[in-house]
Specification:
It is a single chain. By secondary structure, the chain is α/β, with parallel strands linked by helices. It has a domain of 198 residues: Uracil-DNA Glycosylase, subunit E (3-Layer(aba) Sandwich), CATH 3.40.470.10. 43% of the residues lie in helices and 10% in strands. The chain is built from 13 helices and 6 strands. The protein has a 6-stranded mixed beta sheet. A hairpin with a 2-residue loop joins strand 5 and strand 6. Helix 4 runs parallel beside helix 9. The longest helix has 19 residues. The relative contact order is 0.11. It binds uracil. The site of uracil has 13 residues, from helix 8.
Length: 301
């Protein structure tokens, strides 16, 4: 029978928390499950409504409290919310992004004339709710002049703490995969679709991906890589504008089209997925060998 935390003494609680921390638990979740599919469907429905109606709806998923509010069932022992990187908006300011918000994101991104400018625009951008719960902006790592740009999903806990993409366990695996084909952070550029950690590492919602997409697309346009590698489902689906899943997309050379530019693109499996499914590493190995071959072709006159 499970022992309730309220029945434990201090030493038992400390041992349990230590065990959680060692196991990589970074967030405490609610007891009740949250239906994110339903939330996304509601958000999309609200976006389809005229602006005046959608502005009155709250953007936070129904069961989640506003960033600086305790959860309705918060107990005194709960971990406090992460320090916001900008003043968190009041609940009344949190609205489901309407078309104006998406236009704003596109206009801001288009106005970036350099990678440094894009970074500073994102540093002050407040249109995406994720920035209020994240500790840092996780912009990019590696060499912006590299021939190949890797694009993941969103930062996790370690990335949020350090402000650098792919530095946790998945990132360490990515580094080993890069090294296996002679690449490193000196010869590759690395970023994510979403530059802020989603709370509890949840999958980013459809509207969050849509708000961040103009920025990552501008990032690609400014970096001008010769090859783009999408790591996982979210990166592949959003940059290839397809509904196909990563297991059917991976391993095939495609094109990442941004404006008039089409860059050869390889969708492959996300290193975090490989940590959970090590047998699939052989598929990514094949994709990486194909990438290595393309890179060699680029340097052959
Ligand atoms: N997973 C990602 O997709 N990106 C990171 O930066 C880390 C883990």
């Amino acid at each position: 029978m499970a022992t309730l935390a309220s029945e434990m003494n201090t030493a038992e609680l400390a041992a349990l928390l230590h065990f959680y921390a060692e196991s990589g638990v970074a967030e405490l979740c609610e007891d009740a499950a949250i239906d994110r599919f339903q939330q996304s469907a509601e958000i999309l429905k609200a976006r389809a409504r005229p602006q005046s109606q959608s502005n009155s709806a709250t953007s936070q998923p129904a069961q989640r409290p506003a960033p600086n509010q305790p959860a309705p069932d918060a107990s005194p022992g709960r971990k406090p919310a992460a320090q916001p990187i900008a003043p968190a908006p009041q609940a009344s300011q949190l609205t489901i992004p309407g078309e104006a918000a998406f236009q704003d994101a596109r206009a801001l991104a288009a106005g970036a004339g350099s990678i440094a400018e894009l970074r500073s625009i994102l540093e002050s951008y407040t249109g995406c709710n994720l920035r209020h719960s994240a500790k840092t902006l996780v912009f990019a790592d590696g060499n912006p002049e590299a021939e190949v740009m890797f694009i993941g999903e969103a930062p996790g806990r370690e990335e949020d703490l350090q402000g650098t993409p792919f530095v946790g366990r998945a990132g360490q695996l990515l580094d080993r995969m890069l090294a296996a084909i002679g690449l490193s952070r000196e010869t590759a550029y690395i970023t994510n679709i979403i530059p802020w950690r989603p709370p509890g590492n949840r999958t980013p919602a459809a509207h969050e991906i849509e708000l961040c997409r103009p920025f990552v697309e501008r990032h690609i346009a400014l970096a001008q890589p010769k090859i783009v590698v999408m790591l996982g489902n979210i990166a592949s689906k959003s940059l290839l504008a397809t509904d196909k899943g990563i297991l059917s997309l991976r391993g095939t050379w495609m094109e990442c089209k941004i404006g008039d530019t089409a860059t050869p693109a390889m969708p492959t499996l996300h290193p975090a997925y490989l940590l959970r499914n090590p047998a699939q590493k052989r598929l990514v190995w094949a994709d990486f060998l194909s990438l290595q071959e393309r890179l060699e072709q680029l340097s052959t006159p």
